[in-house]
Amino acid sequence: MLPEAQPFSAPGGPNGALICHGFTGSPHSMKPLACAFADAGFTVDLPLLPGHGTTPQDMALTRWADWSAAIEAAYESLAARCETVVVAGLSMGGSLTAWLGSRHREIAALIAVNPLIDPHAPIWQGLIDSARASEEQFLPAVGSDIAKPGVVESAYDAVPVAPLLDLTGPLEQLTEALPKITSPTLLFTSPHDHVVDPASSKLWAQRASGPVQTLELPDSYHVATLDYDRERINAESVRFALRCLAQ
Questions:
Q1: CB 188 within 8 A of CB 215
Q2: Beta bridge partners of 186
Q3: Partner residues linked to 223 by β-bridges
Q4: Per residue in 233-245, pLDDT tens?
C-alpha cells in the first residue's frame, strides 16, 4: 500500500458525502476535503478505487468499468444510510462524479476539482497520443502536479497504458451524457493545470442542464486539493453543499 492511500470513512448525520480520488492517485489527495465534510457533520465515504494505492502493475489490470462499478456501489451504500448525498471528485474522480450525476438526479450537489471530461482536449490528447505511439506498458507519471513546494501526492510513479487508453470511450460517452446532469454543480478549475485542460470544466458547465458555479484556482496546479487553494476548496465545497441541502 502506498503511504496514506487507505480509504477513509467517518460516521455522521443524515447527510452523506461521497468523495472520489483521481487516475493513478489515492484517497490521500482527497482526505482534506473528506475531513472537512466530516467536521461539518456529514457521513463520509472516500473509497480506494480498484487497482489504485498499491502498484502500477495492479492498476494495469483494471479499467473504467471497474472504477465506475466501485463508485456506483459506494454511492448506493451511502445513499442507503443517508437521507441525502453530495458527491465530490478530483480529476478522474470528477469524471466519476459527473457520471454519477448523469445517472442519479437525486444527488443533492456535485463538486468537482479539475475534472477530466473532454478526452480530446490538447493536454490529455497529447498523453493519449504518447500512449498509442509507445511500445511500453507504462508512461511517466502524471501524479503530484502541485505548485506548493514540499507537498507530494501519494500516487503512482508511472501510468499504465492499457487503462489510460480505455478511458477515451467512456469519456466520450460521458460528454454525451452531460445534459442529463440536473444537480447543482460547483466546479473548481486551475488555469495552470498540467494534466487536465480547463476546457473540461467549461464543457461540463456548457452542457449540464442544472445550475453550475465555477471558481478559479489561480495559485494551484492539478492536485489543487493539496495545493495552495486547499482550504478554499474545503470551505467553499462545504458551504455549497449546505446551501444546496437547505433549498
A1: yes
A2: 111, 213
A3: none
A4: 999 999 999 999 9
Work out the burial of residue 228: count CB atoms within 10 Å of its CB; fewer than 13 is exposed, 13-18 middle, 19 or more buried. Answer: middle
Three-state DSSP class for residue 166: helix
Which residues sit opposite 159 in a β-bridge?
Answer: 139
Helices in 26-91 by DSSP H: which ranges? 31-39, 56-59, 64-81
pLDDT band at 146 (very low <50, low <70, confident <90, very high): very high
The residue type of 136 is E
Average pLDDT value for the chain: 97
H or E stretch including 236?
A: helix 230-246
- Could you give the percent of the chain with pLDDT greater than 90? 98
CB neighbour list of residue 122: distance below 8 Å, 6 or more residues apart = 197, 199
pTM above 0.70, yes or no: yes
Confidence class for position 168, pLDDT limits 50, 70, 90:
very high
Under CATH, what is the fold of the domain 8-246? Rossmann fold (3.40.50)
In the structure grid, which three cell numbers stand for residue 175, read together? 460528454
pLDDT at 247 over 90: no
Report, as residue numbers or ranges, the catalytic residues.
91, 193, 222
Whole-angstrom distance, CA of residue 121 vs CA of residue 116: 10
Q: Is the four-CA dihedral 232, 235, 241, 246 of positive or negative sign?
A: negative
Task: Find, among 204, 164, 203, 166, the residue nearest to 184 by Cα.
Answer: 204
Q: Which residue matches cell numbers 463508485?
A: 71
| Measured distance CA(8)–CA(48) in Å, rounded | 8
